[in-house]
Design brief:
By secondary structure, this protein is an all-alpha fold. The chain has 4 helices and no strands. The longest helix has 25 residues. The termini are far apart.
């Protein structure tokens, strides 16, 4: 399983989420850079660069969710957890 192998390599859900948010920023940067650096090619080329990088974010978010699910079942999920519910007597 890919998620298990990634987890064993040290990749955690937080890493995938950070990559997703970074790719959103890179989308805007790629679009703006292409628009300014290649003025003769027009808006179409800038849009293609932005969309190309923009397609990475959902993949990273999906990997983050899969890793988070694996971490919950593995018991290695980091961060704050809610206190256990107590039985009413």
């Amino acid at each position: 399983m890919i998620v298990k192998k990634m987890h064993e390599m040290g990749v955690r859900s937080e890493h995938a989420y950070m990559a997703a948010f970074a790719s959103i920023g890179l989308t805007v940067a790629a679009w703006a850079t292409s628009l300014k650096a290649e003025p003769g090619t027009g808006l179409d080329r800038a849009d293609r660069w932005g969309l190309f990088v923009g397609e990475w974010a959902p993949t990273f978010f999906g990997l983050g969710l899969a890793l988070s699910h694996y971490e919950q079942h593995d018991g290695t999920l980091t961060g704050t957890t809610a206190s256990p519910l107590r039985k009413a007597s």
